Amino acid sequence: MMASALEDNEVLMYSVLEYEKRPAHIYLTSTYIFIENSARPSSHDNTLDARPSSSLKNHVIDLREVITVRGEHRSPPKPRKFILSSPRKPSLLQEDKSPETNTFSIFMINRVAKHRWRHKVCQFVCRDYGTCQLWITKLLELLQNPEWQRPKRLLVFINPFGGKRKGVKIFNEKVRPLFELAGIYSEVIITKRQYHARDVIYEYDLQTVDGLVCVGGDGTFSELLNGLLDRVNSEGGVEQTFRHTPKSSALRIGIIPAGSTDAIVYSLVGINDPVTSALQIILGDSLGMDVTALYKKEQFVKYTVSMSSYGYYGDLLKESETLRWMGPKRYTWSGFKTFLANKAYEGEVSFLLASEEDSHPRDQTVCYSGCEKCRKSAMEGQQVVSVKEPQPEFDLGGASEPILFSAVSKRASFMMKDGWHHVKGRFSAINLVTISCRCDLTPIGMSPASHLGDGCMDLILIQDCSRLQYLRHLVRIPDSKSDQFDFDFIQVYRVKEFSFQPITEPEDADEGEGQERGGCGRRKAGHTQMKNSSSAHSVWNCDGELLDYPSLYAHVHCQLIKLFARGVEECNKEDSMQCPACCSAYDSDK
Ligand SMILES: Nc1ncnc2c1ncn2[C@@H]1O[C@H](COP(=O)(O)OP(=O)(O)OP(=O)(O)O)[C@@H](O)[C@H]1O
Predict the structure, then answer these.
(1) pTM of the entire structure?
(2) 290 noted as active-site residue
């Protein structure tokens, strides 16, 4: 295999070097190092016995997974002592007689467990200093490959209060040393208040950095996302009006998880591990992710990437906000209380289905790194596929002349008009997810077959049901072996646009505009205010932020934002590193 791989790649350098205490033929191409072990050194002049050893494995190092290369600076050798102390174990190559190094180390990615990366070091001993320098220089030059888009300067925001309040420690102890090893300069801003990160992004000279990094949870990421998109829209002259087409940013965002849920990074990487995320940033991994624009009726509110949820998860978040002192445990407690309350809310859901050739939330596919579906969507430059450009029907009174009307269950009615589907009823939960939304509690995600960059959202409608029914659904969510949507009170759709309208508006809904926005949609100050929310209405939980009014319109934009991430790598089905995050029921059934 190595021989054929070598034939396909031009060899730029070749040497016989010592690797793992044995001589080896080392071939360098523009993207790989091929290591071919030899049996033993010849007795004179350090040439090698070319016979391959059957007991030794050959290796390939992918330069795209190399962090950096360093010369090993050792203290000057003492030849006489060396010979006396190890008479039977001379170096396989010529002994280093100069104080300069003849050894170089390659720092590279090591996959240690399911989706978890660490780095390891491979050492090579050369005959002399000159050869060593040649290898180091050539390798460093190849690592600069502009196609790999590795960052050199990053603007890092740390939320010191996210999750278990360990953001600063995580960055200083786990991330900063790796960035320094990779030669990345990072300017660090520890946020002092909510919206600090967003306000810095509005003003910062973004030309001077290669990317932004968020050390925090989903809420902090949301600030960076909205700050960046507000900024590029403003500079690109895009007014954030109803159903606007936002500008995308060339600047990528990296996420170092240090929050409570970390659902976004979990969905991107398959794990919420700061070191893995830092290594993906260093390698310059790039991934396009869909972004959903939310509107209160026709007024733009914000961009989101994970889940907007009304009913159960909205109530849960509202309850948990009063219990922040409990840390991440507040979600478990609030979840329990919300479950006991077992509320349902009346309204009409309207949505524009994804086109025929698009996939379905129950089509049993998982979005892995290099996903073909996402790649196709990006190539097509899909924004919204809609032949007639239909508009949502907000006015329930005017929802006239349905083309199709049928009962989908005892609890809801369904109709279709101008491509828009309408479901009227009482809902325990309405969940709209842009990505799979995995986290520790739901390792396969709220919608396991959702894609990161297909330009679609998954709509999960849970109609009014008993506590027992809801519990049966809830316990299936983290279970990779069962289908959490397989209930008659749950419907799932893959959609492009969505709206929700309560049967009656809350009295002060028009005053609860939430965010005050300046020119070109920039928010001046403050965030969505909690307004009178009667028990007839729930609130929206949008990426962990409360929007306390029920009417909502959502419009997804295909791969609007670029992230420093690789996507969830598929576990090797044969080895023990399988995990529930990607080896789901779908896989095991095949
Ligand atoms: N210095 C600060 N003081 C108070 N709030 C802050 C500060 N810095 C950031 N924030 C805000 O804190 C909120 C929550 O932060 P974050 O999302 O990082 O943590 P989390 O809520 O624990 O995690 P997750 O969102 O993953 O559940 C964010 O909305 C962010 O805007």
Answers:
(1) 0.84
(2) no
> Would you say the CB of residue 543 lies under 6 angstroms from ligand 1?
no
CA dihedral 250, 256, 259, 264 (to 10 degrees): 50
Q: Is 533 helix (H, G, I), strand (E, B) or coil?
A: coil
Distance 198 CA to ligand 1 centre (A): 12
**453-499 residue pLDDT tens:** 999 999 999 999 999 999 999 989 888 788 889 999 999 999 999 99
In this structure, the residue with its CA closest to atom 11 of ligand 1 is: 194
Q: Which of the listed residues 161, 166, 441 should we mutate to test ligand 1's pocket, taking the one with most ligand atoms within 8 A of CB?
A: 161
Q: Which residues pair with 296 in a beta bridge?
A: 299
From CA 407, how far away is CA 416, in angstroms rounded? 12
- Percentages of the chain per state (helix, strand, coil), in multiples of 5: 25, 30, 45
* Separation between Cα atoms, residue 64 and residue 33, nearest integer Å: 11
How many CB atoms sit inside 10 A of residue 160's CB?
Answer: 16
- Closest residue by Cα to atom 5, ligand 1, is 194
What is the value of ipTM here, to two decimals? 0.97
Burial 253-272 (b: 16+ CB within 10 A, else e): bbbbbbbbbbbbbbbbbbbb
